[in-house]
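Worked problem 6 (solution included).
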Amino acid sequence: MPRNPHRYDSIDALRGVAIVWMTVFHFCFDLNHAGWLRQNFYTDPFWTWQRTAIVSLFLFCAGLGQAVAVAQRQDWPRFGKRWAQVAGCALLVTAGSVWMFPRSYIYFGVLHGIALMLVIVRLTSGWGRWLWLAGALAIASKFAAADLIASTPSLDFLNGKAWNWVGWISRKPVTEDYVPLLPWLGVMWWGMAAGQWLLVERRAWIARPMPRATAPLAWLGRWSLSWYMLHQPVLIGVLMLIKG
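Solution. The predicted structure is:
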């Protein structure tokens, strides 16, 4: 594989789909927060399942991207530069959420989770087919742990902030965004496994030219972190101006 990085429009466009979906979801959330909708985004399955699907798609695409990066022999300094951007943005999200939601601020949301998962997925990229099994076990462990912790009082410390980033919990913490290591690491592992398989067995599926109509999605996918950081301040600012 060449050392010069090459992007696949198919992967960027798929990430772009997640970006559009997330933006629409957040816009509806903001309308609800402003009092112009009457929805329960925390318990209504219509919204909670959408959130699960959006996060899953983001993390799967992150795994795909890491498969491409490893195949193109991305070095650790380049990886570290991108990782620092993600981690820095995670800290900014925490700071902004403390201002907006002081009682339910984000201390381990999607960017915090991605920052940790990226390191783990990079270090385990050589597991090959075992990534499929590792992903399944990561997802299953979350549900098994929930029952065990609920029935074992001595394990209740895992529900505290010091440990609930792991994801082995029996009750969801009070926070606006929560993407713990487990089960979500399993989704990124599956993305890595799928990417490695595609690059070896079905490269044409991801390398073929995309229809021109998908160009905006691919553009969004290439600038996903910037869009993620900017879209909410813009949406909230516009709604605040309209509301007066």
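Discussion: The chain has a mean pLDDT of 94.
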